[in-house]
Amino acid sequence: xxxxKMNPALFIAQAGIxxxxxxxxxxxxxxxxxxSGAIQIRISEAxxxxxxxxxxxxxxxxxxxxxxxxxxxxxIYDIVFGSLTTLLAACATYALRKLPFLYTLPPVIFNALxxxxxxxxxxxxxxxxxxxxxxxGAGEAVSVCVLGFVLKKVLDPYRNVIFGGDASVRVExxxxxxxxxxxx
Length: 184
Description:
Layout: H1 8-30, H2 57-71, H3 76-95, H4 105-121, H5 129-155, H6 159-163, H7 167-183
């Protein structure tokens, strides 16, 4: 029987890996000028689906967003409030983790509501709040509802191996699946 309490070392490792992935993916997309602005398609936002699998994704996404926003040179308001938006969305995603597809909505909704304010006040972008809410929301929907949902479907069969709590359980699962494939 698997222990329900997560190993603190595993929690920190998972959070760190998720943060690093978020930074790398954001920097990659930023090279194509898609990570910020009125139209944003951050493929790193697909990772906001990960709280469905592990609570370690919550601090991982927050730290990853802080670092990504810092590295890509965003305004201080974006670093603070954009990252807090990601944190709130990750918490809400975790809370909705048992509700199919609804867990994809918090990042879309929170970003569509908050990021337009940052674009208008921190970056002095010309445009209306509804326009920015629509464009940011649409980009977030592509990133989370499409790419994130696909990521979840890909990771689902491996959820216990990748996100399981006890290392011995994960090793046994991998060994069992390897033995099963060899015998088939």
